Amino acid sequence: MQSSPNPPQSQFPQAAQNPFASAEAQAELKKQELIQAYNTVGSSFYSIAAFSLINSIINYFQGGIYFPVGLGITQLIDALASLFQQEAPEAGAIFLAFNAGLNLVILVIVALFGFFIKKQIKWLIPVGVVLYLLDGLLVLMFRDYLGAGFHGYFLYRIWLNWQTIRSLAKTTAVPSAIEPM
User: Fold this and answer.
1) DSSP state for residue 6 in the 8-state scheme
2) CA separation (Å) from 13 to 16, 29, 38?
3) Residue 41 is part of which domain span?
4) What is the b/e burial string over 92-106, where b = at least 16 CB atoms within 10 angstroms of the residue's CB?
5) How many domains does the chain have?
6) What digits encode the pLDDT tens for the residues 72-118?
């Protein structure tokens, strides 16, 4: 088997590797790479929230499928609400409302993580990673290996972008949404 003559390329343009680019052009490429990394991480959290919402809707209609990227905690809440509805059908509406409200709060928090990460609030990334890792451990505890694998993949992709953000944030001045300009 022959190896490829072209080395693998990063998903971002490499400003520092072009010796012919002006300092301003290199700074602009680094800035764009940093913005792209933040946007990618923020979009990951949006995806997690969206797939969790879809999973809850599927569960409400008693569908037999789910998206493994979604949150395990919302699936656990859905399962408990369904179990309580079966045990006490007269209070089914209360359990449904509690389930919907709790899931909505969780999904809004995850979506807000995505929103504020896209606004370049850097400290939310490790907090979100720890929370999603704990959720992945919950998924693993229920022996959902496919879900745990997808959690691991998303965490890996977030970590790669986090490394890019950490390295470029030292050299690139891009104002954050909460930092003074």
Assistant:
1) S
2) 9, 7, 15
3) 28-169
4) eeebeeebeebbeeb
5) 1
6) 999 999 989 888 888 888 887 888 899 999 999 999 999 999 999 99
